[in-house]
What we know:
Layout: H1 2-11, H2 14-26, H3 34-52, H4 59-68, H5 77-84
Amino acid sequence: MAKKEQKLSEDMTLEEARAYRAARHAAKAPSLSEEQKKEQFRLFWAQEKAIYGRPKELEEILWLHLKAIKHDAPEKFDAGLKHFGLKKVS
């Protein structure tokens, strides 16, 4: 990987190389804390539980499952519920 950067830096000016490196480091999305992820799931489940036809009591079990399979990010909730075996009823 260092050779790729070295080849890129040989073709770039100093300013372009600095901008390139800054862009690579600035592209990281801020990660959510554990509490924020759980709150996002709570809101998601409040809206979706009727679609899945499941009671609210299942929320804590689902959250533990999502954490265990590393699907505790908001964009992965649907895939995690599918992995759990839930299907949308309506």
